[in-house]
Design goal:
single chain; 284 residues; alpha/beta; Rossmann fold; Arc Repressor Mutant, subunit A; 2 domains; Sig_transdc_resp-reg_receiver; phosphoprotein; AraC family transcriptional regulator; sequence-specific DNA binding
Length: 284
């Protein structure tokens, strides 16, 4: 192991404050090659922390309030995070263990915590991270030598934990989901978050941060933009069978044509009927 390798960044997630403190002070993290950068009492708080900083290793309980450990890790995986994972829990439950393994858990340990078991798990994970970082450096060096440019090496960037940029990846997934489902009047922040396995409040927070507009504003703009396209196509068509305004409203996810017209006029300063009737020639 190279002495110049960076310390792997650890996030501890457990609703028991004293257990978090026990774990922090029980292990010689520096000697193990790790650094505890943050702690959280539930999954929701942990996701907010991960939005602000990269993480290489997550140590989490399962049974916690607001968002339990399994749902939290599902949300982390939906972000394409490659963070290593250790579950430390009081529940010797086969179903829990199965779910943990399906989520890519590296270790499943039981409370009361065994110091030796944790240290062995950390040693294994540290070796895996070191191997990963060395491979990334090697590939990066080959890319540079081949003239393709390269990404910063693992000890020069916070990308190692897979968290940096994951907010943008989540937004790309959310945008793709909206594009595929904007015509459904049931589309909502909640339904999108559920499809992406993330907490709705977390998705709302990331969406606003990355796009500078709310999820609702984004969906509205997508729907009205598509409506403008359909209305102008209808205005240019000579076919009498082209969709009417009310039909177009339904096609872009509005159940109520009058509400659709109100939203449309607010955005474009003109009613849908005028666009459809061919009296609108402005840009949009």
């Amino acid at each position: 192991m190279r002495t110049t390798a960076p310390a792997a960044r650890v996030l501890i997630v457990d609703d028991e404050y004293y257990f978090r403190q026990l774990l922090i002070h029980l292990i010689d993290w520096t000697s193990a090659g790790f650094e505890v950068v943050a702690e959280a009492e539930d999954g929701s708080e942990a996701l907010r922390i991960m939005e602000e900083q990269p993480v290489d290793l997550i140590i989490t309980d399962i049974e916690m309030p607001n968002m339990n450990g399994l749902d939290f890790v599902k949300a982390v995986r939906a972000l394409d995070s490659a963070a290593k994972l250790i579950f430390i829990t009081s529940y010797d439950n086969f179903t829990y263990a199965q779910q943990a393994i399906s989520l890519g858990a590296d270790h499943y340990l039981l409370k009361p915590v065994d110091e030796e078991a944790v240290e062995q798990a950390l040693n294994t994970i540290r070796a895996q991270l070191q191997e990963k970082w060395e491979e990334e450096r090697y590939i990066n060096r080959l890319r540079i030598e081949a003239g393709y440019g390269g990404q910063p090496a693992a000890d020069q960037t916070s990308e190692d934990g897979g968290r940096q940029g994951s907010g943008k990846r989540l937004i790309h997934k959310a945008a793709a989901y909206v594009t595929a489902h904007y015509a459904e009047d049931t589309l909502s922040l909640q339904s999108t978050a559920s499809a992406l396995f993330v907490n709705p409040s977390y998705l709302s927070h990331v969406f606003k941060k990355e796009t500078n507009e709310s999820f609702v504003e984004y969906v509205t703009n997508i729907r009205l933009g598509k409506a403008m396209e359909l209305l102008r196509q209808g205005a240019a068509a000579e076919d009498a069978s082209v969709p009417k305004v009310a039909t177009i409203a339904h096609q872009v996810g509005y159940r109520d044509p009058f509400y659709f017209s109100k939203c449309f006029k607010k955005k474009y300063g003109i009613t849908p009927n005028k666009v459809y009737g061919g009296t609108y020639s402005g840009k949009y």
